[in-house]
Amino acid sequence: MTKLAALVFPGFELLDLFGPLELFGSVDADINIAITSGQQGPVGSTQGPRVMTDCLLKEALDAELFLIPGGPGIRNQIRNEDLLGWLNESAKTADMMMSVCTGSALLAAAGLLDGRRATTNKLSFSRVARTGKNTQWIKQTRWVEDGKYWTSSGVSAGMDMALAVIERKFGRDCAKKAAIYAEYDWHNNPDWDPFAEIHGLV
Amino acid sequence: MTKLAALVFPGFELLDLFGPLELFGSVDADINIAITSGQQGPVGSTQGPRVMTDCLLKEALDAELFLIPGGPGIRNQIRNEDLLGWLNESAKTADMMMSVCTGSALLAAAGLLDGRRATTNKLSFSRVARTGKNTQWIKQTRWVEDGKYWTSSGVSAGMDMALAVIERKFGRDCAKKAAIYAEYDWHNNPDWDPFAEIHGLV
């Protein structure tokens, strides 16, 4: 069984979280998904809907896969010392630490992206880059892999990154099946990124 | 303010619900999103994560937009007389009734698709078609519009349908902005559907 812990905090972005979780949750493999946060109970998203916490951060340290969504709430979380400590602890044993959108600001604030390549969403690009001064931020890419760190561009890019992670961990067929099940137009080339130009980053 | 009520039930499909809600929730318009179900408290998805109910079905009757996700749980819901009654009540005043994936089976079971064109996901196509015997089921299409009823193909197709609804209700610019914000590769032509062939339906 593969344990996947997905972080939530007030003001997380709905699709950052649930796009990847749809795909991980549909893979023909034994994956246990747990929503984790700093406190029990419901946690509200940017768009309104609230998700229930399944386990506390301290109970999720043994997960092999971590997923960190972005959203406006990330601005408070990059100063949350408990959370940054948990991320550092989790990173020691995790196979893969994933972020979607501005979620990479949290990995950067924890120092985990120092000396690494990473990306984030287009609209907050310069702000996130300021959080991770020792990171090489890639402007035009759907996602970036550097060691155990997988960071994706904005919102829907998390789904393409998730499929790339599924491919790596469970094989190409598994990823392809999950995409076809979801009737999803998988962009399996990380260089596919028309949005960098649309948002004026390149 | 536009009220959008999104139905949940045990065993709903995560992306069916949260893909469209991400887009509706990011539109530059005053849209209030409420998760509605038959009882208060958390409701579990197929993939595991639980969403909180914001209001009961009877409190959501005045919504202008309704969203019905699919998922394995739909098989129980098509026999849920209270729910079918609520759908009929809601349909009287709603502007648009939307379903994603097998969610259209629920509209069909309520008799709301009688004499109409509709679609559903590929994997459950024949099963859903048996639920709605008086409906013309379209095999190859990303989504179908017939009157106030908008039905989409499987899972991720709900996002393209949501953008088409946003375009209709709030204008092309609004839909385009929401897609670009989400860095989403919008398929704005309902005829785009490679999955009908992949799944052997055509």
Automatic annotation (TrEMBL), chains A, B:
It holds the Pfam family DJ-1_PfpI. Residues 3-167 form the DJ-1/PfpI domain. InterPro entries: Class_I_gatase-like, DJ-1/PfpI, INH-QAR. CDD domains: GATase1_PfpI_2 (cd03139). PANTHER family: ARAC-FAMILY TRANSCRIPTIONAL REGULATOR (PTHR43130), THIJ_PFPI FAMILY PROTEIN (AFU_ORTHOLOGUE AFUA_5G14240) (PTHR43130:SF15). This is DJ-1/PfpI family protein.
